[in-house]
Amino acid sequence: MENILVAGANGTTGKKIVQLLNESQYFNPIAMVRKEEQQTYFTAKNIDTVLGDLEEDVSHVFKDSKSIDKVLFAAGSGGKKVIEVDQEGAKRLIDASNKNGVKKFVMLSSMGADQPEKAEQLQDYLKAKHNADVYLKSSGLNYAIVRPGALTNGELTNAIALEEKLHTRGEISRNDVAQTLVQTLNDDVANNVTFEIIKGHTQIGEALNKMSFVKA
After folding, report:
1. Active-site residues: which are they?
2. Angstrom distance (rounded) from CA 29 to CA 38
3. Which one, 20, 35, 39, 190, has the greatest CB density within 10 A?
4. How far apart are CA 125 and CA 32, in angstroms?
5. Are the beta carbons of 113 and 162 closer than 8 angstroms?
6. What confidence tens digit (pLDDT) does each residue in 142-193 have?
7. Burial 36-66 (b: 16+ CB within 10 A, else e)
8. Terminal CA-CA length for the chain
9. What is the C-alpha separation between 12 and 182, in angstroms, rounded?
10. What gap in Å lies between CA 94 and CA 157, rounded to an integer?
11. pTM for this prediction
């Protein structure tokens, strides 16, 4: 079992990710939360937790928890602190991951983060995500950057459209995003790649295995 640190574990998508990891035979989740009271939700389910605030130094997280094999960054400020959390918080965790020999860093990004200057909305958020993505790519870590379309609260369909660049907008449920992120943690798929996803007709595992684009 690999220990997976989940940043943003207390978020809507983060909780889905942690639950999937907890049900997995391959992964053990470590839920990273900001406040002690947020630990209760996870400890009640016998899920490991660690306290860490992305607006501050996070190097202690790797000492205060079990040995961390991989990191899944699903944190977000909800548009309130895009520089402090979405950009600089991600950079802090990338640096700490590098220093602690993390084997893979999976980043939940956003469609449009490749060209934030062209966005009609959320330009500041997309710029922050873009900067975090660029930082991860240049970090030397093995990475996967996942850029979903507009998130919905729909049911799990386990079917997506996946390409390095989809050239079309679309929606995708948080459940399908969470499932994709968890499967992306596997060693044999999505290494040093960036890709976009929306709802589609290809099974998630099949879509990940079929990625034929050049590593970005």
Report:
1. 125
2. 15
3. 190
4. 22
5. no
6. 999 999 999 999 999 999 999 999 989 899 999 999 999 999 999 999 999 9
7. eeebebbeeeebbbbbbebeeebbebbeebe
8. 29
9. 15
10. 31
11. 0.94
The ranges assigned to domains in the chain are: 2-209
Q: How far apart, in Å, are the Cα atoms of 37 and each of 34, 44, 63, 76?
A: 9, 12, 21, 19
Structure tokens at 41: 């939700």
Tens-digit pLDDT profile for residues 89-128: 999 999 999 999 999 999 999 999 998 888 777 889 999 9
Question: Which of 68, 58, 76 has the alpha carbon at shortest distance from 13?
Answer: 76
Q: What would the DSSP string read from start to end of 117-146? A: GG-SS-HHHHHHHHHHHHHHHTSSS-EEEE
- The Cα–Cα gap between 108 and 18 comes to 14
> What whole-number distance in Å separates Cα of residue 132 and Cα of residue 92?
10
Q: Phi, psi at residue 197, to the nearest 5°?
A: -140, 140
**Alpha carbon distance 112, 36 (integer Å):** 34
Q: Are strands 70-73 and 150-152 parallel, antiparallel or unpaired?
A: unpaired
47 — pLDDT class (breaks 50, 70, 90): very high
CATH class of the structural domain 2-209: alpha beta
